[in-house]
Amino acid sequence: xxxxxxxxxxxxxxxxxxxxxxxxxxxxxxxxxxxxxxxxxxxxxxxxxxxxxxxxxxxxxxxxxxxxxxxxxxxxxxxxxxxxxxxxxxxxxxxxxxxxxxxxxxxxxxxxxxxxxxxxxxxxxxxxxxxxxxxxxxxxxxxxxxxxxxxxxxxxxxxxxxxxxxxxxxxxxxxxxxxxxxxxxxxxxxxxxxxxxxxxxxxxxxxxxxxxxxxxxxxxxxxxxxxxxxxxxxxxxxxxxxxxxxxxxxxxxxxxxxxxxxxxxxxxxxxxxxxxxxxxxxxxxxxxxxxxxxxxxxxxxxxxxxxxxxxxxxxxxxxxxxxxxxxxxxxxxxxxxxxxxxxxxxxxxxxxxxxxxxxxxxxxxxxxxxxxxxxxxxxxxxxxxxxxxxxxxxxxxxxxxxxxxxxxxxxxxxxxxxxxxxxxxxxxxxxxxxxxxxxxxxxxxxxxxxxxxxxxxxxxxxxxxxxxxxxxxxxxxxxxxxxxxxxxxxxxxxxxxxxxxxxxxxxxxxxxxxxxxxxxxxxxxxxxxxxxxxxxxxxxxxxxxxxxxxxxxxxxxxxxxxxxxxxxxxxxxxxxxxxxxxxxxxxxxxxxxxxxxxxxxxxxxxxxxxxxxxxxxxxxxxxxxxxxxxxxxxxxxxxxxxxxxxxxxxxxxxxxxxxxxxxxxxxxxxxxxxxxxxxxxxxxxxxxxxxxxxxxxxxxxxxxxxxxxxxxxxxxxxxxxxxxxxxxxxxxxxxxxxxxxx
Length: 742
Fold this sequence. Notes:
This protein is mainly β. The chain is 13% helix and 36% strand. The chain has five domains: 41-195, Immunoglobulin-like (Sandwich), CATH 2.60.40; 224-325, Immunoglobulin-like (Sandwich); 333-421, Immunoglobulin-like (Sandwich); 432-519, Immunoglobulin-like (Sandwich), CATH 2.60.40; 529-653, Immunoglobulin-like (Sandwich), CATH 2.60.40.
């Protein structure tokens, strides 16, 4: 039990440690992401090298970055007193809002100082060296010891390396103070400092550079760049507002001290603000400028002058100008509307001459069907022409006008009305691959039909002619109107009447297509040829087998005709070149064959075989003649008419059909061991649960192993138990002896 408790305690300790580590990391990340605020008071200037007048002519300048006065009583400057000591500002000293606090070894009146401005605190305790202490890159710290201990560091100034020189300042023949950039950043960065470049508040004739109690003018160059736009957004060239305009600008830069202000004005030229004088608007990028008086016309330029952090004003940057215009644009002239050539109609093209207005204009074309009051309008942009489609063809007339629209959506008066008519200038076209000739068997009329796309224009007249259109003998067989998809229904051309017909299309503009000649097969095949007939009369009924060959390759089927007693009988149609008939003996028969092509056109009759059917006789007829023989092998029977009752009608003996293939019923596939159903997916879930249970069981097994006794622990326990048993035995023996004594 003690081991389980130890295990659980250790587990909780590790878990809490992990939680604390993660929390510490999160806090560290959050802290790293926070932006460093600008200190309320910064170290602004250090004359750490002294001046040409005296090496002890040193000063320290602090700057208040806030809009409120700050009490500096007791504040400290490290590494600023002898022996790298700390300089403490006496009580009663404060720094004014956005002002400076100058600490110097000498007053402005001392001959050993080049200062020409009174310090805020004169002390002889300033001692500035030329490097940081060994092991640190912090040159000086401004800190407030109240109310914390250790003191709160307000700002720092750094060195180039541990024990190295300050980040700025020059100790050459011309001394230059170490000055903070106007835009405050971390004082431990070299990019936060510069060598002084001015002689502000120094004695006349001073050769050193410094700017005590003044802006650190590290920036001696004006701002650069810039784009100026007339209008609140994208640049405009025209305005109808006679009282004001909103302008905007961007892209001005000053890498040294940044942009802190802009001066904005309006001018009638791009060089001078003679219409609305320059005024400071602050560090913004847009401004609404009120006109000095109502202005109805004229061109003006927006003028911008950027100002950097040291007060240097940049050059004038002008817009490309805008013009005030409140008049409606001039009407376009020269409107002309013509039919589009080489089309199927429905389209007219309008052209016109540009408006004479000087401002930006677009154009609007208006059209309507003659007699309709409502106009349809189309904006064409700056284009001077427009094709209007989807119109009705002649005889419908259309009216057109055009007008211009300026930048302010003001419309000109419409132009004079022009009337035009759309014409169909193209003949329709037939797609021969989509025209179908249906040749039916005799008894049903042949037809001509068109599939979708057979005509390239919708609703054209479809006509079938008996001859070419230019042939004076041509007559109209039939006609229909095509459907919107270019198809048309079947047109009858009679039952095997026309071997050729001509198809033409006529559109709404009376344009006629080129004729398409269509062929219709109305001629039958060449007559077949009987080559053999065998009559086998074993009984009163004879089996007559006929064989023939096709007369031409276009023969598709055959019918057998036989005549007996003046009556001709025709069998039904077969596609083979042989047939067996069961006919009554005792009669003479005439046999012939008629062939048919795929369209049902018959051939001429074949040659004729004549056979006298006699019981007990086998008769064979070929092109070479007729032979007979007795079926029982007797002598040849010459021939003799036999009186018999009227023979029964011939019976057709169908050919033996080929055995039909055995269609095996496919064996149903064995069902899957687990059907693909919702129940089958339960097996997956069961498998997952089993794996999880095995993992849990393994975890408990590992836990149980962790609390089992090691061999050393088992030895110690057995030894202790042995000692206990020995002690117990000794106690029993003692009790036994006492009892015996009693």
